[in-house]
Specification:
The chain has helices spanning 6-26, 30-55, 59-89. With 102 residues, the protein is an all-alpha fold. It has one domain (6-96): Helix Hairpins (Orthogonal Bundle).
């Protein structure tokens, strides 16, 4: 069995974070942008767990528990905002949502 070291976990975490970051910058759909933001959050939690495992402590795991709890609330609020914008503007494209003043 092959054991992954800290470098491999950090590499995967950095790759996931970069993918999410460029997804946020390049995509036009608000749902896809939101998923890319969540991917960045998961990448940071992966790095926290990897550092926690490398140091032999549970500190990173405790932080991840709180991060995932807050992420669940974030998903509910974020999707509610996206649904409200869709109901008002009938689109989820970012370039058409730049005129939010009524």
């Amino acid at each position: 069995m092959i054991h992954a070291g800290l470098e491999q976990y950090i590499f995967v975490s950095a790759l996931m974070f970069a993918l999410g970051f460029f997804g946020v910058l390049l995509r036009k759909n608000t749902l896809v942008i939101y998923m890319c933001l969540e991917l960045m959050l998961v990448a940071s939690t992966l790095a926290l767990v990897a550092f926690s495992r490398f140091n032999g402590t549970m500190d990173g795991n405790v932080f991840v528990f709180f991060i995932l709890t807050i992420a669940a609330a974030e998903v509910a609020v974020g999707l509610a905002i996206i649904v409200a914008l869709f109901r008002q503007r009938h689109t989820v494209q970012v370039e058409e949502l730049n005129h939010l003043k009524n």
